[in-house]
Amino acid sequence: MTPENLNEEHELKRAVCRAYDVPMPAKAQVKLEEAYASLRSVPQEHAETAVPGPASTGDRSGAASTAERSSAGREPVRPTVRRRPTRAAQGEAAQVGKRVVKRSAVVAIAAALVVLLGGTAFAASSLLQMKAGDVPFFQSGSNLPIYNSLQAGVASLNTEVGQSAVVDDMTVTLDTVSTDRNIINLFFTIEKEGGFDLAAESIYEGSNENEWTRLQQIMPLFSQAQITSAGELLCKSDVNKLDAYREGDKVKCLMRIVPGVVLPDEVGVLLTDMVKPQVEGGELMERTLFEVGLDLSTVAQPDELGAQDIVFQTSEGEKTLGIKRFTRSELGTVFIVRNDEVETIEEGGRPVYHPSDTSMLPQLLKMTDDQGSALNFVNAGDGMGYSPAADYVMELSGMSKDAQSVTFTPMALTQSAREAGEPDAIDKRKALNEANPAQEVDVSQIGAQLPTTEYGGYEITSWKVSDNTVSIGLKPYGWAPEAFRSAFELHSVDTPTALKDEYTDPETGETYGGYHTAVQYHKYDYLTGEQIQMTSYYAAGDNELQNLHLYSYRTSFGHYLEESAAAQTLPFVART
Amino acid sequence: MIDLLQRAQRGDSDAFAELFEQHKLPLWKAAVAVLGNVDDAADALQDATIKAWRAIPRFEGRSHLATWFMRILLHASYDLLRKRKRETPYAPEGFSGEFSATLLAFDEQRAIVGGKHRPDHDVIIDVRDAIGKLSSDDRLLLTLFYVNDFPVQQVAETMNLSEGAVRTRLVRARDRFKAVYLSENEGREVAL
User: Fold this and answer.
1) Which CATH number is associated with domain B1-96?
2) What is the 3-state composition of chain A as percent helix, strand, coil, each rounded to the nearest 5?
3) How far apart are CA A479 and CA A409, in angstroms?
4) Would you kindly state where each structural domain of chain B is located, as residue ranges?
5) Is-contact A170 A429, C-beta < 8 A?
6) Are strands A351-354 and A342-345 parallel, antiparallel or unpaired?
7) pLDDT, tens only, B18-69
8) B40 touches chain A (CB under 8 A)
9) Which of A7-16, A68-77, A294-303 has the lowest mean pLDDT?
10) Which of A66, A282, A427, B71 has the most crowded CB, counting CB atoms within 10 A?
11) ipTM score assigned to the predicted complex
12) Fold match flag (B1-96 vs B104-187)
C-alpha cells in the first residue's frame, strides 16, 4: 500500500478489513455459549403491565419503581439503560409532547391490563393466615446449611398451600408460603413420573458438575411475581432461586421474593411462567401457575426508618441519600434507595450513565446498628435478580433484633482513588494497583482473615471439597465495598483440569478447542451475611481439588476513607 | 428471523441464541475495536448477550435488530472500558500488548502452516498498529463502516449521530488513520 493508493477508498477498505477482521477465538465462543446456557435462569424485562396501586399502607415505592421501569422500557434504542432520572425524564417529557402522550397512553393500557391480569380479589374466607409451625423443607437437614438461620423466622410465620401445577412434565407443588410484611419465602416440591434424569441436566456434554448445580436447572423459572391487593397490582418482583435438594424421587426447593412495597393486610401472590407453543409458530403465552391469597392482618408491621432524603456533609460536598424504604421484620431487612444516576450524552452522541456528584451511593455507606453490628448487603438468589432500570432494592444482613437505630457513615474515595479514576491518569492507576497486588491465602486455614480494605474484609469459616465442588464459607467483618451486587471471589492459584470442548465455526468450517472449568454460585445467609462460594468443576475431581489450597483475591487498600464526622443516625419507628 | 425474534421475545432462549449467533461476528469486531483486546471483547460480548436477552421483550422494531444488538454491545463495551480504566492501566498505545500478541499469534500460525512468510504480513501489522493509535470512537467508526459494511444510516443509528455527522467523522477518521500510517511508514513503500 502506497501513500497514493491509500487515498483510494477501496484500497483503504481492503486494508482496514484485512488488518481488522479479527477472527472470533474459541474462548470467546465458549463464553458466548456459557451465556446462552445461563439464559434460562435470567429473567427477561417485559413491557410494563403495572401501574401504581394504592396500597393500603400508603407505601408507593414499588409503584414508583415500576413506573420508572416503564419509562425506561419505552426506549428501544437504549435497551440497557439504567434508570432515567426523574428530573431528566420530567424535563424531557415537558419538551417532547408526543412522548408524554404516548406514555400516558401506555399507562392507560397498562391499567386496563392490570384489571385483566391482576383482577383476582380473593374472598376473605379463602385468604390464608400465617401461623407458627415447622416447615418440612428444613426437616431433612439436606438444605444448604447457610439457610438454616432462616428456619426460626419461617417457623413462626407460615401457611400450608398445597397447590399444584404441571410445568415441563413435572408436577410442581407449592407446599408452604412464609411471609411477613417484608419478605416472601416459597417452598416447593417437584415430582416427575419416572424420576429425574440428572445426567441429562449436565451443563456440557461429559461435564461432572455437582447435583446441586443440576437441580438449579430443574427448578421452575417463574416470570416476575405479581403482588396484588384488592384486585390491584402493587408491584412485580423477581422470584429468586435459593436452594434445592433431592428427597427420594422428589426435589425440594426454596425461592424468595423481596416485594417492592410493604405488604398490606390482604395480599395476592401470582406466579406465572411462559408456555411454549404447542403448534409450530405459535406464540408463547404467559400462564398462571399459582395464585395465593394471604391475610397478613395478624402479622406485625415492620420497624422502619422512614422514607426520607438524608444529606451528608462529606469532604466532597453535600451528598443526598434518597431512602424510599428501610424496613426490618422477622424475615429480613429491606433497604430501597432511589436511583439517582444521571444520563449524559457525550460529544460522540453516546449516552453515559454515572452517579450524580450530589448523590450518596449505597455501596459507599458503612452501616451499623446501635448494638454494634455491621450491616452487609446480601444479594438476592443468584445475585442477578435486580433491574438496572429502577430503584436499588437490597437486602441487608446483620441487623440486631434489639437495634433501635442505624448509623450511616459515608465512605469517600481517597484523593489517590479519585485521581486514578480520571481517564488519562495511567501512572496513578498503576501506582494504586501496584499497592494492591493479588493476595494469596491457604483456604484450609479456617479462621484466616482476608482484609480487603483498611475497614474490613472476610474470614474463612469453612472449606469443603465434595462431589467435584469446592465450597468456601466467607464471613464478612467490618465494611466490604465489594458486597454490593457483586461477590467477593477467591480463585484457585493453580488451574484445575478443564473439560475440553470443540467448536466448529459454521462459516469457516474451522474447529477450535475450547475449555470449560467450573460453574460458580454465591449464596448468602440472610441473617448473618456469611456467604458461601460454591465452585463446581466440570472435569476436576475431588482428589485433585483437595490438593488445591492456595487461592488468590483482590484488595482495595488506599481506595477509601471513612468520614466519621459526616455520619448520621436514624432511629427506628414503629410502622402504623 | 421474525419467528425467531418473536420466540425470543416470549422467553425461548434457544431461539434467542440462534438469533444472536446470526449477529455475533459484527458485534465481536466492534467489541474488539472499542476494547482493544480479545479477552475484554469476549467479556463484553457475553455481557451484551445477557442484557439483550433481558431486554428483547421490549424491542419494538423501530430500528434494525442488528443496530439494536450493536447498541447493547457498545453499552457493554464502554461500561467495561470505564471499569478497566478504573481498575488497571489500559493500553495507552492502542492495540499494544496482549491484543497484538493474540493477532500475531493467528498470523504467525498461518504463516507456519502455509510454509512461508506472507508478503503482506508486515502491512497488516502496520495497518493494525496505525488503527490502534486512533481513538476508540474512530476505531469503532472504521469497523462499523469498513469491516461490518454498515451503511451510513445504520452507523448513524448505532452511534446516535446524524448521517451528516457520520460522514464528517468518517472523513476525519480516514485522515487521522492516513496520517498515523504514513508517519509510521515514512520512506517505506510496501505492496498490498
Assistant:
1) 1.10.1740.10
2) 25, 35, 40
3) 10
4) 1-96, 104-187
5) no
6) antiparallel
7) 889 888 888 988 888 888 778 888 989 999 999 899 888 877 666 678 888 9
8) no
9) A68-77
10) A66
11) 0.73
12) no
